[in-house]
Amino acid sequence: MIKTVCFSILLCVCFWGYSQTIPNYSFEDWYTASAGHEDPVSWNTANPTTNVFPIYKITTEKTTDSYDGNYAAKLTSKTIMTFVAPGFITLGDFTIDIWTQETSITGGIDFNLKPDKLKLWYKYIPVGNDMMRIGLWMLRNDGSEIPDTVATALFETHETQNTYSQLIVDIEYRNDFNPEILNIMSVSSNPDNPVAESVLYIDKIELDYNTGIITNNISDFNIYPSPTNNYIFLNNCFNNCKYYIYDLVGKKISENIYTEPINVSEFTNGTYLISVEFNGILHTQKFIKQ
After folding, report:
1. Rg, Å, the chain Cα set
2. CB 195 within 8 Å of CB 126
3. What is 10-208's CATH superfamily?
4. What's the rounded Cα separation, in Å, for the pair 85 and 118?
5. Where in the chain is the domain with CATH 2.60.120.890?
6. Which CATH architecture does the domain made up of 223-289 adopt?
7. Interval 159-202: pLDDT, tens
8. Greater confidence, 102 or 151?
9. 47-106: pLDDT as tens digits
10. N or C: lower Cβ tally within 10 Å for the chain?
11. What is the pTM of this model?
């Protein structure tokens, strides 16, 4: 558990969610909440708590100042009563107690791939020596009260970035287990000492798979041919195994049981991931459709 004073982050992870992709990764989709503000679809913010009487403050906003598509997420640190609340987005469930300034983040999205890097585009205009943070956590439910951390990625900076810049952060794996849940979070201020009016813009969040990966020591997981125009083949040990094909954002393209060559002729040209279940373990590699 992590607990600090003044808009701290208390990370308590419970398992929910049924998605295998980063939803609304470019912040194109927004909905109008009951209080009248807009929130990004599939992401949680502090707005439902701060945009109420007598506060009426929006810390996460839709902006047309975007890198990709029509919109991006604009996170602004704002004074809430007697403390400063950073702008905040998370794939988990976010709550804050206005009176104690304690916050909690639970949940995330169901996710069992093993990406190498977290990539996104951002701008940052801090006030004073404020600091923004962007983090990724992948965890698994090992039966204990606090789920086991499989992998993390973290970036923080004090530096001003007035134009959109791409951020690429290595994902560090702590063990060989397959992840079960993914959470990505961005915050416009140092949670331990936030400064009002620091602004962080976030757009086009992606996961990068730079290398073909195998999630255990099976040495004969082969995908051929790659590149391919029409079909891909797996070696015989994967006959009658369930497979899933994803694009590099993590969106599931297809799934089936492997009994014959897989027809990918209708796929858009590009790089894909195929994950195959074998003895309860997912084995994942890349292939190229051209």
Report:
1. 21
2. yes
3. BT2081, beta-jelly-roll domain (2.60.120.890)
4. 25
5. 10-208
6. Sandwich (2.60)
7. 999 999 999 999 999 998 889 899 999 999 998 899 999 999 99
8. 151
9. 988 888 888 899 999 999 999 999 999 999 999 888 898 999 999 876 666 555 566 666
10. N
11. 0.71
pLDDT-based confidence at residue 281 (cuts at 50, 70, 90) = low
- Token pair listed for 6: 């003044």
Is 193 or 224 the better-scoring residue by pLDDT?
Answer: 193
Single-letter amino acid code for the residue at 142? D
Confidence check: pLDDT of 1 > 70: no
> From edge to edge, which strands make up the β-sheet containing 262-263?
223-224, 231-234, 262-263
**Residue 174 token pair:** 């702590």
Cβ atoms of 189 and 130 closer than 8 Å: yes
Q: What tokens appear for 268 in the block?
A: 């858009």
Dig out the tokens for 32 from the structure.
Answer: 């109008």
Tokens (6 digits) for 182? 């993914």
Is the distance from CB of 145 to CB of 107 less than 8 angstroms? no
Q: Give the number of residues written for the chain.
A: 290
Neighbours of 190 (CB within 10 A): 20
Task: Please give the structure tokens belonging to residue 49.
Answer: 């708590």
